[in-house]
Amino acid sequence: MTSWGLRRWAVGGACAAWAAFGHPSAALAHAGERGFVLLLPTAYWIVGGTLAVAASFLMLLVVPAASIRRIAAMRIKLPTAPRVPVAATSAASFLLLVLLLAAGLYGSRDPLSNPLPLTVWALWWVGLTIAQAVFGNLWAALNPWIAPCRLLRSLAGGAVPLTYPAWLGYWPAVAGFLGFAWFELIDLAPDDPARLALAVAVYSAVTLIGMLLFGERAWLARAECFSVFFGFVSRLSPLGSEKDASARRMLVLRFPGTGLAGGEALPVSGVVFVLLTLATVSFDGLSKTFWWLGLGGINPLEFPGRSAVVGLNSAGLAAMWAALVAAYGIAIGLGVALAGRQGSQRCALGAFVLSILPISIGYHFAHYLPAVLVDAQYAALALADPFARGWDPVGLEGAHVTVSFLSSYDAVSVIWKLQAAAVVAGHVLAVLVAHAIAVERFGDARTAALSQLPLAVLMIAYTLFGLWLLAAPTAG
Predict the structure, then answer these.
(1) Residue 414 — φ and ψ, nearest 5°?
(2) What is the b/e burial string over 155-169, where b = at least 16 CB atoms within 10 angstroms of the residue's CB?
(3) How confident is residue 53, by pLDDT bands cut at 50, 70 and 90?
């Protein structure tokens, strides 16, 4: 592989982010050159990972419902650090956003040297998503729109003029995330710094207007797609904030995914939103495979560019999303029938869908891991000199981005094992969360297992699909 090929490979993982920021730039590759991975005995990992997920479901059949409830209720109280006002952290994020926008407009035109695309695509979309799943809802404090919204509202008198319509549900968030998915996967060139800066500014303005019209809490909770997404992802975290007996907030350590098993069932719009997040990252991997390109009559060894697959990938993304919605609906319907609880399908649809999130995040980590290892290095250099003026405030002069590990068998082996482990762990956790939800909904372990059986079969099949995607040769 040439140095330019490695460079394109490195940038690829940085092309996922704010859909509504739809804007063209350099069309670069997306995930890793997984041809390296084919040198490994991936078939053993694929079969073994799939069997591990199946075994996790079978093991749950002999676990009493009371034990499931005890595990879900386990809490360890942690020391609570002094709280920093959200307005302060949001204001700092807003200032950073302004700096990045200025760098996008006036800095280097090279996406690998400008901090805006690297920060948004690699550090924010990839890094923060994983951090949310580990540490909880960091985005609630880092959201850059809260501070300016509160300032503008105070200047306007503090009133919220409109009530967010209940019938809208999560549909605005669905539309926003669908736009993001199309932009990430299909737009011809998604990371030109200047156009990205303009798109981010426009999206920020729309978000602020929505927050001012309908209220900060309502707009961020239902309509702003990234706040909705990050909020759901944070419920995976083993760290949670809960009220004690005196109604005071405390930080607790809990079993990962416990936050997904509680709360009210999502409406149909919320179900569709969660399934869209999985369809997006899954189709991202599928769209680069030799198999997919062959469906469009494209020689993957002579990939002509993204413009050749706009129609194919647009249809493919829609088909992947529709297939997931249909498969999930069928699995829940069959599960409700097996449990003898006809009439509760609508409620079950909204109750079980959050168990899909561990799958989405596991594949998110696996899919972007190779590229972000390189992109993070570029981001550090770009942030040290945001306007390409030769600044070196932290002593990085002479530092170079290394891609040597991409040609090392040992390094590739470790990366593949981490990817496979993330996919399998995500599916195993999804099975556990679904079972905990079933126990909570249906009461006894036997009924819970029957209700979960079709969904477990779907998750096992998706494990096989996800591991195959990681091992499949890709192009583009």
Answers:
(1) -65, -45
(2) eeeeebeeebeeeeb
(3) confident
